[in-house]
Design a protein that fits this description.
Oligomer: single chain
Radius of gyration: 29 Å
Number of strands: 19
Distance between the termini: 53 Å
Helix content: 40-55%
CATH superfamily of the largest domain: Histidine kinase-like ATPase, C-terminal domain
Structural class: alpha/beta
Length: about 500
């Protein structure tokens, strides 16, 4: 079990039975238990309301009330703590009814040994944890389906906003008032793009470019960006300096994990200030029972901990903090996606995240990522100038506005551009003269023929034709599938002028 001490609430109206249960716990040496006693129905409700226990031992007979009534009331109040029924004598119908009401197990008094009690508690806690993980997975799947549905259309809208803003900004004086307004529009478009990417990230439907990364360098670089945005009342203490091990990860997404966890910690200390401490260390285990999280398999990991001295997280919401759109912040202060994004990124990288928190004493989030032995490849610096060219490009998008935007952007980069809004029209153009173009840029989701289908037809005509696919989102294709069928590059809309220019130049120069 993850906790060093398991907190047990015994709900029992018979003091003699309470004494017997305490004796049983005193014989258990493998796990430390903190046992509290609620002798009445009313006292039990008060203790349950504090939500400070890991498991409830519930007597069936509680004066003129029953444990079944209390269990129903607990369920109605949203309790997620596992319950084990204690009964004076075996009654099949009662036992079945209590189990149907949500109890994890039942034990017959007089037949309980210390070993049986310990196993029952362990089973109950593990079962509840697995149930929570299943519910979380189901939520993520539902949100992911919704995210994929809106991402394509919304990204097309953002593509037009970003693209035409950049085009307009290049045609008006730099010192005009309109230039400032366009800058704001472009910034808003980029924020919208990042929001959609966060939604796709926590629903595990975003593209990742994983490479071996030295985690300490990613943390240090991210904190450099973060420090300027935090108030002086919050101190950042980093124990991740120097060389660390490597993880196979997407650098942008790892930065997002660090930023989101630190921003979340800072928000918890916004009133009185405090300290954020980032620790990075090696972690490994050999037996499944030693795992800090059930998702982790035995092996070597890097452990990244982000702790704060803030107000802490109430126990009744601790199970919900990773839910998409759940937030305790005031309206306008957050979207409720921060921790959902962290969870999605970490699990998509084969890791896991745990959290410990206590009101008034802050919180500790621990991220575990599988360690790899490869060294990080040296990355070349990004050119300051936007790359240009004079090649002939066929730009295909079924939305007229995006086709117009693509033509304007590529023409401003020096390319000779032809546009089509239909995939079949574009194919006929290629059939008439296979050597007319040096590069094809195509959308994926189009009527009559998808981008993947179009690419297949084009490559059948001219096998060495370079192709770039742009899409707002598609369930049918990703970067890996695109590459497998011969597409040279896969770009997620919306893209900025620099991003599109860089992708084109990379493909043409290969």
């Amino acid at each position: 079990m993850e906790n060093s001490s398991v907190r047990v609430l015994l709900i029992e109206d018979d003091e003699d039975d309470c004494v017997l249960v305490r004796k049983l716990f005193s014989r258990i040496t493998t796990v430390s238990y903190d046992l509290q006693w609620a002798p009445t129905y009313k006292a039990a409700l008060e203790a349950i309301g504090n939500n400070r226990h890991d498991v409830y031992l519930l007597d069936y007979q509680l004066g003129d009330r029953t444990g079944l009534e209390l269990l129903h009331e607990m369920n109605g109040n949203g309790s997620t703590v596992p319950v084990i029924l204690l009964t004076g004598h075996a009654d099949y119908e009662v036992d079945v009814e209590v189990m149907r009401a949500g109890a994890s197990d039942y034990l017959v008094k007089g037949q309980i040994s210390a070993d049986l009690l310990e196993r029952s508690i362990r089973y109950a806690i593990e079962r509840k944890r697995l149930e929570r993980q299943l519910r979380q997975a189901q939520k993520m799947e539902a949100i992911g389906t919704l995210a994929g549905g809106i991402a394509h259309d919304f990204n097309n809208v953002l593509a037009a906003i970003i693209g035409f803003s950049e085009i307009a900004a290049e045609t008006i004086p730099v010192d005009s008032k309109a230039q400032s307004s366009l800058k704001r529009i472009l910034e808003a478009g980029i924020r919208g793009r990042n929001l959609i990417r966060q939604i796709l990230t926590f629903s595990r439907q975003s593209e990742q470019e994983k490479e071996p990364l030295q985690l300490s360098l990613v943390v240090e670089e991210t904190l450099e960006l973060l420090r300027a945005s935090l108030p002086s009342t919050i101190d950042i203490r980093c124990n991740a300096a120097g060389r660390s091990g490597f993880v196979l990860a997407d650098v942008g997404q790892l930065q997002q994990v660090v930023l989101n966890l630190c921003t979340n910690a800072a928000h918890a200390m916004r009133e009185g200030g405090g300290a954020i401490t980032i620790d990075l260390s090696d972690f490994s285990f050999r037996a499944p029972g030693e795992a800090p999280h059930s998702l982790l398999q035995p092996g070597a990991y890097l452990k990244l901990s982000v702790s704060d001295t803030g107000e802490g997280i109430a126990g009744d919401i601790l199970d919900r903090i990773f839910d998409p759109f759940f937030t305790t912040k005031k309206q306008g202060e957050g979207t409720g996606l921060g921790l959902s994004v962290v969870l999605g990124i970490v699990e998509s990288h084969g890791g896991a995240i745990t959290v410990k928190s206590e009101l008034g004493k802050g919180s500790v989030f621990a991220v575990y990522l599988p360690r790899v032995v490869e060294a990080r490849a040296e990355a070349s610096g990004e050119d300051k100038e936007i790359p240009t060219g004079r090649e002939r490009i066929l730009f295909i998008d079924d939305e007229e506005a995006l086709a117009e935007m693509g033509e304007a952007i590529l023409a401003s980069l020096g390319y000779e551009v032809t546009t089509r809004t239909g995939s079949r029209d574009a194919l006929e153009l290629l059939k008439a003269d296979p050597h007319r173009f040096d590069l094809i840029v195509t959308d994926q989701t189009m009527p009559e023929m998808t981008g993947v289908e179009l690419a297949g037809e084009i490559l059948a005509i001219k096998a060495d034709m370079p192709i770039i696919m742009c899409t707002g989102f598609s369930h049918l294709v990703d970067a890996g599938k695109a590459k497998a069928i011969g597409i040279n590059a896969f770009v997620m809309k919306p893209v900025t002028k620099r991003e599109l220019a860089t992708a084109i130049r990379k493909v043409l120069d290969e």
